[in-house]
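[User]
Protein folding is very new to me. Any chance you could explain this protein sequence and its structure tokens? I have pasted everything here:
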Amino acid sequence: MAPLPGAELVQKPLQLYRYLLRCCRQLPTKGIQQHYKHAIRQSFRVHSDEDNPERIQQIIKRAIEDADWIMNKLRMVPVEEATIQLLPSSRS
């Protein structure tokens, strides 16, 4: 299950960027929202020169899966714990 409706419509990098920023609005605290917005922007810049269509689709698929993982994790954890668990860069 995708974190927001419309994930299946994401085909282009700019659509992905907007979609992920919309996902950030569902995060519980401003600190977590800012952290992930910053990570999304950085990742978008890093991959902005990618021109291989297959690789672009891989990146889109992985980014949506990661967003889904984060949103599912949030549903299972109280806000105080989510702040601690979601900010580190590694997943458990």
